[in-house]
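Onboarding guide, step 5: your first structure request.
Type a short instruction followed by the sequence, for example:

Predict the 3D structure of this protein.
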Amino acid sequence: AGGSTREPTRATVDRVRELTGRPVAQHLTCVGASREEIDAQARELWSAGVRKLVALRGDPPSGERYAPRHDGYAFAVDLVAGLRRIADFDIAVAAYPETHPEAKSAEADVDNLKRKLDAGATSAITQYAFDTDGVLRFVDRARAAGITAPIIPGIMPVSHFGKLKRFSDACGAVIPRWLAETFDGLDDEPETRDMVAAVVAAEQCRRLADAGLTEFHIYTLNKAALSAAICRALGLTERAALGAAA
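The system replies with structure tokens like these:
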């Protein structure tokens, strides 16, 4: 998210597309590049057949406050508008059920999400949140504010609780007591931890699906087996996915 892996990310996107033939979403951030550099990359992506983008402000270096580049896109809403001028991308943006740490208020945060969608984004992917009721309340608030675009909940499998806690402290995600108690001591028992993590994540997906949210964004953190286990628990096998596509 800091823009330091821009070129390796592009190489990975190309490789996944070549190996699978599946649509792949390239992430673009405001940080780390000028408007001209981002625009050029967007044109290259479109020419290469990439149609899905995730447009983010991006994170400042650790310990620093975000400050826009003088020659860059200032915020995600500006990035979305710029990308929309280049081509008809399918653009996803970020949403925050527990409110962005830098937002003035929850209402201001929803207003900012609406501005990004009004600028040309087509969907929103949420920051992960373990309070499923809170995610559903956020969706209700977004709909009440006039947001009609798909809202895709972010699902975070607990691949290492200690690391999750540090990451959550940094991004403002709340870890409920029940989750801490469930994973207490399991970082020393990785096989058990992964089984419990798959069950917890799949159950959250089921509750959200029951409420009408049927698309999910799994934060894999390079743990392919755990993410695959969640999909399997939800009945999403490779064969089922191909059948649905047909």
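Each response can be followed by summary notes, for example: The beta strands are 25-29, 52-56, 90-95, 123-126, 151-152, 154-155, 217-218.
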